[in-house]
Write a structure and sequence with these properties.
The chain is mostly beta strands and 143 residues long. The chain contains 1 helix and 10 strands; from the N terminus they run αββββββββββ. The strands form 3 sheets. It has a 4-stranded antiparallel beta sheet with strand order 1-2-3-4, with no helix packed on it. It has a 4-stranded antiparallel beta sheet with strand order 5-6-7-8, with no helix packed on it. Strand 7 and strand 8 form a beta hairpin.
Length: 143
């Protein structure tokens, strides 16, 4: 038994061994270079009651939960999207508003159903997180 409690050669062991290359650290087989500490480890994604959203570079793709059929695509970011946050809590626009933030330090608030851009913010510092409040406002956080 290994230190982590997973038997060597088991499915969990193989998965974690293969993922270490993506999470940083040098590849033993001389593969891709190690990821930098400031690079995102996961693709930016968010979900509402009926849609799954994820970002690929500067494009945000919206898929239906049940069928994974493409609903719409948003391409208003100029730089790669770093994170997404869907409004699932406010009384005003729950499940309808989304905020996305790109590496150029621009946050876009947009209407998920119409695709309209509701607001655009540019930050001086890198924003790491956003949370929707019950009154429909967004709280941004940087550290």
């Amino acid at each position: 038994m290994s230190v982590s409690g997973v038997r060597p050669g088991s499915r969990s062991s193989r998965r974690s061994a293969g993922s270490s290359r993506r999470l940083g650290g040098a590849s033993a087989d001389g593969g891709a270079p190690a990821a930098h500490a400031d690079e995102p480890q996961f693709q930016p994604c968010a979900a509402t009651a009926s849609l799954l959203l994820y970002a690929v570079d500067n494009l945000i793709i919206c898929l239906h939960h049940d069928t994974l059929a493409l609903d719409r695509r948003f391409d208003r970011h100029r730089d790669p999207v770093v994170w997404l946050a869907a409004d699932n809590v406010s009384e005003r626009s729950a499940g309808r508003s989304v905020v996305s933030y790109d590496s150029g330090q621009t946050a876009l608030v947009w209407d998920l159903l119409t695709g309209d851009e509701l607001a655009r913010f540019v930050s001086y510092e890198q924003i790491r997180v956003a949370a929707w409040l019950r009154n429909g406002n967004i709280a941004f956080g940087a550290y």
